[in-house]
Structure to design on (360 residues):
């Protein structure tokens, strides 16, 4: 945020920022050597993508000959929470089937009598449910999907619900289980039917990917068991244990598709079942003064006041997307940082500079 009493300069129009050789290209080129070897970026508004670019190659070794581009597929990691789980929850909310402020055990028999039954959907969406901070699924529950989901329901809460904002993948895993139960279908089917196909997101899907999709996917981290960098298989170990389809991670996508998704947050197409009302409700501060401030699934961007309405979601692999309904613009910056290392400070610095350039 700027100092009190000082006017915040209006950011340049998206097309100017993202022009070839423009401010965003210079920012990415300057920051990328400390982050990795390649990135894809774009900015847009309610009319769609207004510009963007790509730089560098997919990775190290055999990936050095493959260039990044608008059709490069990325493991979105936790951005799955907003491109799959959040809109599917919105469909149920808009239909009156997902009460945000009732304990989930009151209307979901699977949760009744368990510690998780006392939390609300709003608390799951804002990461204020007080659930344990780490997943540790294989260690605690084994490798069976049903046993893992049962373990998430039965786990004692870490703290009383509503008392702190603490980001945890368990909240998204539980909410995904709830959404699937209420809707009567797996999350990958729901997201494809309710979100991706209506928006023309033809490159977006849960993995594992087939040969054609894998061939243009940016590799993530070296995996000892596989003996290679993961590519086309979800990086997140919890999502992998759950078969690759989970509320917390597992979705692969491209800059092109994510631009369509972000455009829809500013100008929802007619008939979209999760549309404008859900988006407007979600892109408001919902954590009652607790820090860090969050909307529903979305995080108020670091360095901004919640009242400014700039929201973000990051993925552990190195991905990030932003949107501001107030400014009527969106942005994305996609890297595969974990392919190189887990020193995230250079990426944090690049993300913050990128956000300042686009949103102020």
């Amino acid at each position: 945020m700027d100092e009190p009493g000082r006017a915040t300069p209006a950011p340049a129009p998206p097309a100017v920022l993202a022009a070839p050789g423009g401010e965003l290209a210079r920012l990415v080129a300057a920051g990328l050597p400390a982050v990795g070897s390649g990135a894809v970026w774009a900015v847009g508004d309610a009319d769609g993508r207004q510009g963007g670019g790509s730089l560098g190659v997919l990775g190290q070794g055999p990936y050095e000959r493959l260039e990044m581009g608008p059709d490069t597929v990325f493991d979105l990691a936790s951005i799955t929470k907003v491109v799959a789980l959040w809109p599917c929850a919105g469909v149920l909310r808009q239909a009156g089937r997902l009460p945000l402020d009732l304990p989930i055990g009151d209307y979901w028999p699977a949760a009744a009598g368990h510690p998780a039954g006392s939390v609300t959907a709003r608390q799951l969406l804002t990461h204020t449910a007080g659930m344990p901070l780490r997943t540790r699924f294989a260690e605690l529950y084994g490798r069976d999907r049903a046993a893992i989901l049962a373990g998430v329901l039965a786990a004692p809460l870490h703290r009383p619900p509503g008392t702190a904002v603490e980001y945890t993948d368990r909240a998204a895993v539980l909410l995904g289980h709830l959404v699937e139960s209420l809707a009567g279908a797996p999350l990958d089917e729901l997201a494809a039917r309710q979100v991706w196909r209506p928006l023309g997101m033809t490159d977006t899907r849960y993995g594992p990917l087939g040969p054609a999709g894998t061939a243009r996917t940016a590799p993530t981290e070296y995996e000892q068991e596989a003996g290679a960098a993961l590519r086309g298989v979800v990086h997140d170990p919890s999502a992998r244990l759950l078969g690759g389809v989970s509320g917390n991670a597992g979705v692969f996508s491209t800059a092109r598709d994510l631009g369509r998704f972000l455009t829809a947050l500013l100008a929802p197409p007619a008939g979209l079942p999760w549309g404008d009302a859900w988006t407007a409700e979600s892109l408001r501060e919902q954590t009652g003064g607790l820090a860090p401030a969050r909307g529903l699934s979305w995080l108020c961007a670091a360095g901004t006041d919640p009242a400014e309405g700039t929201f973000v979601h990051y993925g552990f692999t190195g991905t990030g997307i932003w949107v501001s309904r107030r400014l009527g613009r969106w942005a994305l910056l996609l890297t595969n940082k974990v392919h190189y290392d887990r020193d995230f400070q250079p990426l944090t610095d690049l993300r913050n500079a990128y956000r300042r350039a686009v949103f102020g």
